[in-house]
Design brief:
Catalyzes the condensation of acetyl-CoA with acetoacetyl-CoA to form HMG-CoA. With 478 residues, the protein is of the alpha+beta class. The protein is built from 15 helices and 17 strands. A hairpin with a 3-residue loop joins strand 13 and strand 14. The chain is globular and about 65 Å long. The structure holds acetyl coenzyme *A.
Amino acid sequence: PKDVGILAIEVYFPYLYVDQSELEVFDNVSTGKYTIGLGQDKMGFCSDIEDINSLCLTVVSNLLEQNHIDTSEIGRLEVGTETIIDKSKSVKTFLMQLFKDNTDVEGIDTTNACYGGTSALFNCINWIESSAWDGRYALVVCGDIAVYASGNARPTGGAGAVAMLIGPHAPIIFERGIRSSHMKHAYDFYKPDLMSEYPVVDGKLSVECYLSALDQCYQLYKKKVAITSKGMKESAENSLPPPSSVSSSSTFTIQSADAFLFHSPYCKLVQKSLARLLFNDFLSSSSSSTTSPSFNHDDNASKLFADLERFRNVNLKESYFNKDLETSLMNASRDLYNSKTKPYLYLSNQIGNMYTPSLYAGLAVYIFRHKTVDEMLGKTIVLFSYGSGLASSMFSIKISNQNTETLTKIHNSLKSLSTRLESRKKVEPLSFQKMMKLREETHHLAPYEPISCTDDLFPGTFYLKKIDEKHRRTYERK
Ligand code: ACO
């Protein structure tokens, strides 16, 4: 099938949030550490009444209802999450409660830190493009509750879920043949204590792993674009148009795509990431910036590169915490960041790290941020997915000018994002801390009945009613 991509997208985030500037005062850290240093304004969190199953039940129900999709139309359901509450039973099986008579649904859960959702997505795309496909839709669900022990990682928490309906003839198409991946063993962030929701984190190492994975994926992505472009030129009999990212020039640079979306642990790291792409473009350009092949005689690019010339011999692997380089890169890439990345960090900034849904929340914001559907047509978006441990991929999306009707529906369905976000309830840092303590103490208790109030949920939200003595969870909907 042609044009496999997204036909519908839904985002869920919790009703409660804590203000990061209030948290700075409460945590007794210097003013601006979380808001400027990390680039985070608000952080969403869940009380003991929500768990990973309820989050995913909510986002799937909302997507099906808003798009009038009957569950019999779905043949594959994949969940990406790192919020593990059962070592055997998948979240997917809980979602089957929504599927009534349709039990013929492939797929289970996929886990590797923030990357599980991307793997689930790739499984769905691959299924539709394979001989196993039975003609029905695939549904990808990414969900997580990101909580850290009190300390410097706590302000980088968050929570949320994204569901995406995948099928052929989509308006938001995954480009074929130019996915790049970088997978490696690292102990940067992991969850070895199965009784705790909190990860063990080596913060500095996790940042280094993230940025080095980005370098690797981007370099390989650029190579694959060049190979695909060459292949396209050589095979005259191939009537397929080349992926959009390769159509104008065989050298891919930061200028070749309209937007760059990243997994967002916190917005500041994303800004550094875009800067890093510029550095990679610079290093792969010729030493004379004015004849940079990457930027094809672009005067602006020549200016951007001129300041970077003194870093030409920097060893990439030793440059992740080089402040002088980082400042120059951030300055050189500021306009690019403001136009191609920052506007789409709206949910990340307001909710925090949602783990697996973080990247796809960025995609939802990309659609939401455009005033009209026409403005989006023909645009190319590059996405970078990272999960500690580590697994990472870079891939791209093209907004097609076919099927604008579905694109309009998706656009309309996301219009309520900001009103929903604005209607959340702010909680004092002390109450937030108490809630974290409650989750800590009751996580995995059985039997257990959550004590928090359903008032603090959006209408239509599923919530955990009780856990019985055999650890069996039951849910209700507000
Ligand atoms: N005003 C402005 N900026 C400030 C202020 C201030 N008052 N105080 C500090 N800053 C800046 C620092 O200079 C630093 O900037 P830099 O990153 O450009 O150097 C930034 O704020 C953070 O301050 P640090 O002291 O470096 O922060 P700390 O070490 O306390 O924690 C960290 C940051 C490591 C990200 C921590 O929050 C963490 O471990 N988070 C979880 C792991 C994580 O998210 N890793 C990312 C990839 S893996 C993943 O997705 C889970």
